[in-house]
Amino acid sequence: MIEVSAMIRNSTVFANIRACLAMFRIKTAEGFQYRLANLANASVGVFWALIDITVYLVFYQYAERKDAGIIAGMNINQLVTYVWLAEAILPMIVMGVDGEILGKITSGDVSVELCRPLDLYFQWFSKSAAARLAPLFWRSSVILLTGIIMPPAYRISLPASFIGFLWMLVSLLAAFLLCTSYAMLICAVRMKITWGDGITNMMMLIGSILSGAYLPLQLWPEWMQGFLRLQPFAGYLDIPVRLYIGTISPERAISSVSIQILWSVVFIISGKLLMAKRLRTIVIQGG
Length: 287
Fold this sequence. Notes:
The chain is mainly α. Helix content is about 70%, strand content about 0%.
């Protein structure tokens, strides 16, 4: 009997995995259909990157403390590259709850999802991950190509080292997992909120600010650097980008990627437990 029950559990787990992978493929294919929207989004990214780089060039040349960025360990070429890469990675960052999932939460269609013989958390996890993939592909392709063909002052630099580049790719995978797990935590928080999106918007804004998307974390005050290195949102884009430009050495790559994975596990466990708790007491209205 024990062996039979174990086989049933294993078959259920594999069925869930196959179903989630199928949803991931379908949602990803849907995202690639919106080529014009994704290209328009990428053009906006190029525009903002050029503005940011121009502002940084002015500050590095004309500010009273011209050496402030150098003291922080980031020269202007590294900063220009940071801006291009940050804009390329931006679609991974949690800027909102997936529209399809949010619609199900607000309309009460969660009941339909619960009728499926699948784990709701991982079902939505696969959809949320897939929703980031197509915009990430289009935006990063256009922005990186533009950064390569720019004049020298605005051009993206080559990676600081080949090992650092490989670690950057590993860190990007960890960042993708981290962003998706945090998005699912926000979904779990949103499930029983009926008075608006204020708290979830605050959670998303805090994550984007502390990721380095608006200002590289290395240029923040020195007394904050210990906190900034250990907080979860540095794993969104600051860690992979700094591995590329070399301000995080390959020797520190394992510890940096470990922080990303650790926070991903924390967010997954927290989101799974919170969603299970919310589903036990959820009230669905309609008729």
